[in-house]
Amino acid sequence: MSTIAESLARGSGAAAPGFAIVTVGCEKNEVDSDRMRARLLAAGYREVDDPAEADVCLVNTCGFLAEATGESIEAVLWAAEEEPAVVMCGCVPSRYGAELAAELPEVDAFLGVDEEDRVVEVVEGLVGAASAPSEGPSGRELDEPFDPRACRTLGSSVAFVKIAEGCSRRCSFCAIPLIRGPLRSREADDIIAEARALAEGGAREIVLIAQDTSAWGRDLPGRPSLASLLWRLSEALLDLGTWIRVLYVQPEGVDDELICAIASAPGIVPYLDLPLQHVSRRLLASMGRTGDRESFTRLVETLRARIPGLTLRTTVICGYPDETDEEHRQLLDFLAEAAFDYVAVFPFSAEEGTRAATLPGQIDEEVKLARTQAVRDLTEEIGFKRAAERVGGVVEAIIDAETPDDADGAFVAHGAFQAPETDGVIHLAGEGLAVGERVRLELTDAWCFDFEGEVRHG
Questions:
Q1: 158-162 and 109-112 strand pairing
Q2: Are residues 379 and 280 in the same domain?
Q3: Do both 311 and 295 map to the same domain?
Q4: Angular region, 432: left φ>0, alpha ψ -120 to 50, beta rest
Q5: I need a surface site. Which of 15, 87, 194, 267 has the fewest CB within 10 A?
Q6: Is residue 140 assigned to a domain?
Q7: Residue from 416, 449, 391 nearest 270 by CA
Q8: Which of 143, 228, 153 minimizes the C-alpha distance to 192?
C-alpha cells in the first residue's frame, strides 16, 4: 500500500474495499491512472499491489496500435483470473465501444477516456461504498475538498502533467483522434497550480505531455503559446529548483519563441522530442504532415546552434504504404547525418479506422520489419556512440530510486539528457544519498544508453 493510501485508510478503516490498478501504455495513461487512483483514495478506498488481493481491479488500456490493444486485452484476462471485479478503462473501451461487452464477458464495467471522473461511482456500484476519509495525503484534517492532483507523482522524483487532451491533427496513420477526440487544452493557471503542488510535494522534475504539446493553447482564448506556458512555469517553480521538460513537440510547432524559452528560461531542460516520422515529402504529405529532408536538416542545425547542450529525440515509421527503397535510403541517410541522441523506430501498423490502413501499396510485412531493423541498427549505433562520448563529463542528475536488495546502497538517477523511463539511467553508489536529491555526477562508464556515475562535490 502506498504512503498516500495508508494516510487515507486511517480515516476509513481497515475494512475499506481494496482496489488495484494495472496500466498499459505511455505516460499519458499513467497520468490518467494516477487521477483515478487519487479519486478512489479520496473516497476512502485502499490501494493494494496485487489484483488477487483486490476487491476491484482497474485495467487502464492502450489502443494506439493493434499490438498495444492485444497487450491490454491480455492484461484484462490476467486480472480476471485473480477474481476481483474488473473495470476496463481508457483507450480500448473508447475505441471499440459497445462491442467489447460481448467479446469480454470477464469485464464487469467499462470506463472510457472521458469518463475517469465517474470512477468512484463505477467502483461503488461493483463493490460498495467506502467511508470518506477524515484525513488527506498529508495526514491533516480535510477542511476542503480533496484535490486529486496532489497524488499525481509517478515515483517520488518525477511527475507527468498532461497539459491537453485529444488531438486535432489528422495524421493518416494515427487512431488517437478517434479515441480521444479533438484538442482540448487545459488552462495555464490550472497547469501551473498542479505543477506547483507536485513540486512542493517532492517532484524534482515536471514533464509536460499531451498528444501534441506544441498545439497547446490554440483552442484557448487569446491562443497562448507553449513558450508562454514554459516561461510562466519557469517562474512559478524557480524557488523550488524543479526541472521542467516538454515532450511530443511537433516539428512545425518549433518557432523562435519556443527555442528562446527552452534555451533561456530557468529550469527548462535542453531536451526536445520531435516526432518527424519520415523525411520523404511525398510520404509525409500522404501522412497528412509537412516537411522534408532539407527542412528537417535546417531545423536540427538551428536547434543545436541556439540551444546549448541540446538533446534530441525523434520517432520514425518504416514501411508506410508505397514507401520505396529509395525513400527508405533517404531516411537512413538523414538519420546518419542528423545523429539524434535517441530514435524510436516503429514498423507501420495499419490501424482500423485510419486512412492509411486503406491506402494502396501496403508493404509486405517482412519488408517492413527488415527496414525497421535496418533503421534501429543504425540509430542504436549512433546513439551508443553519442552516449559513450559523454563518459568523463560531469552532469547534474536527479536520484530516482534506490536499487532493491542492494547491500551497497546503490541508486539509479537520470540527467537532463535523459527523459525519465525512456532514455536510460545512471547507476551510482554512495552514502548519505536520498531519492529526489539533485547531485553532480561524473559519468565513468557507459553501456548502450545506461551509465555509471560517481558523485562529485563542489
A1: unpaired
A2: yes
A3: yes
A4: left
A5: 15
A6: no
A7: 416
A8: 228
Alpha-carbon gap, residue 109 to 118, rounded angstroms: 12
* Dihedral, CA of residue 415, residue 418, residue 424 and residue 428, to nearest 10: 0
Nearest 5°: the CA angle 200, 213, 310 is 80
Question: Are both 44 and 108 inside the same structural domain?
Answer: yes
Phi, psi (rounded to 5 degrees) for 186: -85, 150
- β-partners of residue 272 are 312
Q: Specify the CATH number for the domain of residue 297.
A: 3.30.750.200
* Res 336: pLDDT: 98
Q: Give the Cα separation of 176 and 423 in Å (integer).
A: 24
Q: What is the pTM of this model?
A: 0.83
Residue-averaged pLDDT of the chain? 88
148: its cell numbers:
486529486
Q: Which of 249, 264, 279 is the last residue of a domain?
A: 264
The per-residue pLDDT for range 113-172, each reduced to its tens digit, is: 888 889 999 999 998 888 655 444 433 333 444 455 555 555 568 999 999 999 998 899
Inter-residue long-range contacts of 362-369, CB under 8 Å, 24+ positions, other chains counted: 362/321, 363/319, 363/320, 363/321, 363/322, 363/323, 367/319, 368/318, 368/319, 369/319
Residue with cell 540527467: 415
Instruction: Give me 350's grid cell.
Output: 495499419
**Total tally of structural domains belonging to the chain:** 4
pLDDT tens digits, one per residue of 245-273? 999 999 999 999 999 999 999 999 999 99
Q: For residue 434, give its domain range.
A: 394-455
**Is the Cβ–Cβ distance between 230 and 207 less than 8 Å?**
no
